[in-house]
Amino acid sequence: MRTGRVKWFSPEKGYGFILIDGDVEVFVHFSEIVGEGFRLLHDGEEVEFELLDSDRGYQAKKVRRIGPDTPPDSMDPESQSAFHP
């Protein structure tokens, strides 16, 4: 397993990138985030994952959040606004 930090993740597009070793970008698709419901990652969040080196570059598989300030797996950003006017 590798660890890295989320560079950015777009819930609308369903993908983003994780940084490893400070500057290596790894593609992550929402379908590879472990969890139920609406799966997303937050910028700067620490994650662990399996690294796949494909013909299209590095890809993250079986992505899991790690760290003390990990948000719930199934938080939908649309529903969050209903609780925070």
From TrEMBL:
GO CC, alphabetical: cytoplasm; nucleus
PROSITE patterns named among the record's database cross-references: CSD_1, CSD_2
Pfam family of the protein (one): CSD
Cell location: Cytoplasm
Record keywords: Cytoplasm
The CSD domain, residue ranges: 1-65
Membrane-traversing stretches: none
GO BP: pre-miRNA processing
Region (Disordered): 60-85
Molecular-function GO terms, alphabetical: mRNA binding
Protein name: CSD domain-containing protein
Native organism: marine sediment metagenome
Biological classification of the source: unclassified sequences, metagenomes, ecological metagenomes
